[in-house]
Predict the structure of Biopolymer transporter ExbD.
Amino acid sequence: MSMSVGSDDGEEDAVMSEINTTPLVDIMLVLLIIFLITSPVVLKLQKIQLPTETNQAVKTKPEDVNIVVNKDGDMYWNQTKLANTDELFEFLKKESVKLPQPEVHIRGDQETKYEFVGKVIYTAQRAGVQKVGFITEPPDKG
């Protein structure tokens, strides 16, 4: 890098048309050093043990509540189509006061939007249901 100290032709008041990049390089080097020093501190995460995947076959009991949600968002209570979540709420409110409280099993189609399943979960929560589970197909052993 060169620096012009003066001109040889005697024009000392001439405007300098070159960009001085020295301050820019200085700032970039300082930022690089800061990032190199702080990145190991930021990347240190708390050591935790994440849960492992388990797939346990659950025996269904006759008193368990089965709710089916198809890909169009239609809800079924034991093969009976429900008009809306208010009707589902009334059914679940009756079930939630039983002792012991039955489990609610949601069977959602693979192409069902999460919005429809979320409405069922929210309705079950409002009705006071303690245990909600999702029924899935077991993975192939092969």
